[in-house]
Fold this sequence. Notes:
A: mainly alpha, B: alpha+beta, Alpha-D-Glucose-1,6-Bisphosphate, Chain A, domain 4, 8 strands
Amino acid sequence: MPPRVCLIVPRTRLDTTRVGLDIVEPFGIINHMVLDRSPKLDRVFHALAHPARRAIIRQLSGGERNLSELASPLRMTFPAATKHVRVLERAMLVRRRIVGREHVCRLSAEPLKDAMLWTEEFHQHWEARFDALDTLLDEMKSEEVRPRRR
Amino acid sequence: MHHSGLQLSTPSDSTIVLTRTFNAPRRLVWEATFTPDKMRRWMEPPPGLTMTVCECDPRVGGALTVQWKTDEADPAMTLHGVFTEVVERERAVHTETMVLPTGETIGKLVETHEFAEKDNVTTMRITQTYDAKEARDGAIASGMDEGMEACYERLEALITDRA
Lengths: 150, 163
């Protein structure tokens, strides 16, 4: 039931290889609670919470793009695209450098690691609970079939 | 994501829906979900935390209280909730507030449980609606749907390159 602070699962259940993570330090409860309440992570999730910004991330995962290259497939004005890129920059998901008159954006995937861990753990936490509920329900069913004699 | 029966969906930015099917009549699923000595069995605490208190009174106005301790702190965390809507074995709505021993609230949501039975198989649907301010939890949603999934493979290469 508590969704945010009880997301810790045994380390071994996390398939970190799938996302190429070379970590992971042993996470303790405190670390997780810190992660749960991290403003850094808030900014990452906020940045991901808009389809245009996810589209920008997707584009940038193919390599560097300048602002107008990012704006045009989104059918977006330059200022609108700039606004979204700023949100991504605040989340440290995008780095921007100015080359002449061009603003070149580059994806910085690092902050997604924590976001992905958090998401995986949310899923696994509930799976573990529901698996335990399966076991309990099986017991309850067999109790009903063979009620205990007193 | 690995899907073994549990389905997650995110109908809005502040809502997460968990759907899971159980091979049992809903009478039993209801009982297991809201009876304290049963809840202790499946509401697995994270490693390091131990459940110390579990009270649940699934009637309108009834309270839900769960408390955990660690080696260092007892209590380490408390969940307070109140049932606002109950149709026995069918539907229950309760609030949920997570509180630290300092009194600080660290999470707030409304949770709706719905139970549907067919041929002795029960589908339980849990809808979690987060405080609008809890941007993270809502956004997990959208991230899970498209953005992050779509990026995984490319990101793998990028992260590996950077390591």
